Amino acid sequence: MPGAGTDSTKPWQEGGPVVILVEPQLGENIGSAVRAMGNFGLTRLRIVNPREGWPNPKAVTFASGADRILDNAELFPDLRSALADLNFVAAATARERGMQKSVLGADVVAAEAATRIAAGETVGLVFGRERTGLYTEEVSLADVILTLPVNPAFASLNLGMAVAVVAYEWFKLASGGALPFQQPDRYPIADKADLFAFFDHVERELDEALFFRSPEKQPVTTRNIRNIFHRVGLTRQDIATLHGMVAALVEGRRTREERTAARLGGKKRPAKAAPDEGGAGPES
């Protein structure tokens, strides 16, 4: 969610797999990847031979406040050295490499990473260059291939986007899918006494307004009206609002009648016929 959701008072999420960026070409893409890492609780970054050198001020700009990840990033001359202390590695690629390696989606890799990290292992997620991705030799250094269900005619993702998708799957699993907030329950659900009082109110006024034109159909129509409100799960505030609405409609009708009577010199105009109850439902 652009421009929203940052709260410096909340604890920073730590841990998770190590993200390894191999020869990233642009500082902007490094920063975007780091921002995605911060969004989804990944904090350990390794950068292999960045094309524009390091540190990179554009990476800081595009990280949008995830500076601590950049400050702690580790720099390596080649992928072998970046992987040397890891126990399990997944290499992200959109192309089939003709290797006898398991090909896993991001959700499965996240589950595998969680199991291994819980057992004390260190897990790495490797992402390649923006233009060419990982070389086949680099993919061969990984335990499994990580890929995504993308459009085969247009499978190349921006580096930051690729990291975001994989990091999202990790954090969804690690957090149990918990959303950061829920709509607060501001008002308690109405009890039956409140609901029954509203039924009495609305049914009385409908009867006064000649809504129930057929005595035979009135019980069925009344049940249908009640069932409408039963399905909604009304709160006490809802009930109060509905009472006010009905009262306002009644008051408005009486005011109109009084004004009409005044214009006609005290003679009331004949009341309009109420609409038929054809909309009462199949029971009618």
Automatic annotation (TrEMBL):
What GO annotations for molecular function exist for this entry? RNA binding; tRNA (cytidine(32)-2'-O)-methyltransferase activity; tRNA (cytidine(32)/uridine(32)-2'-O)-methyltransferase activity
Q: Provide a GO CC annotation, any one.
A: cytosol
List the keywords (alphabetical).
Cytoplasm, Methyltransferase, S-adenosyl-L-methionine, Transferase, tRNA processing
Could you tell me which residue ranges the tRNA/rRNA methyltransferase SpoU type domain spans?
18-168
- Establish whether keyword Transferase is in the entry: yes
Catalysis performed (reactions) = cytidine(32) in tRNA + S-adenosyl-L-methionine = 2'-O-methylcytidine(32) in tRNA + S-adenosyl-L-homocysteine + H(+); uridine(32) in tRNA + S-adenosyl-L-methionine = 2'-O-methyluridine(32) in tRNA + S-adenosyl-L-homocysteine + H(+)
Instruction: Fetch the InterPro entries from UniProt.
Output: Alpha/beta_knot_MTases (IPR029028), RNA_MeTrfase_TrmJ/LasT (IPR004384), SpoU_MeTrfase (IPR001537), tRNA_m1G_MTases_N (IPR029026)
Per UniProt, subcellular location reads as: Cytoplasm
Region named Disordered: 257-284
Q: Does the keyword Phosphoprotein apply?
A: no
Q: Which GO terms describe its biological process?
A: tRNA nucleoside ribose methylation
> What is the documented function of this protein?
Catalyzes the formation of 2'O-methylated cytidine (Cm32) or 2'O-methylated uridine (Um32) at position 32 in tRNA.
Please report which protein family the annotation says this sequence is part of: Belongs to the class IV-like SAM-binding methyltransferase superfamily. RNA methyltransferase TrmH family.
Protein name from the UniProt record: tRNA (cytidine/uridine-2'-O-)-methyltransferase TrmJ
Please tell me the species this chain comes from: Starkeya nomas
Gene field: trmJ
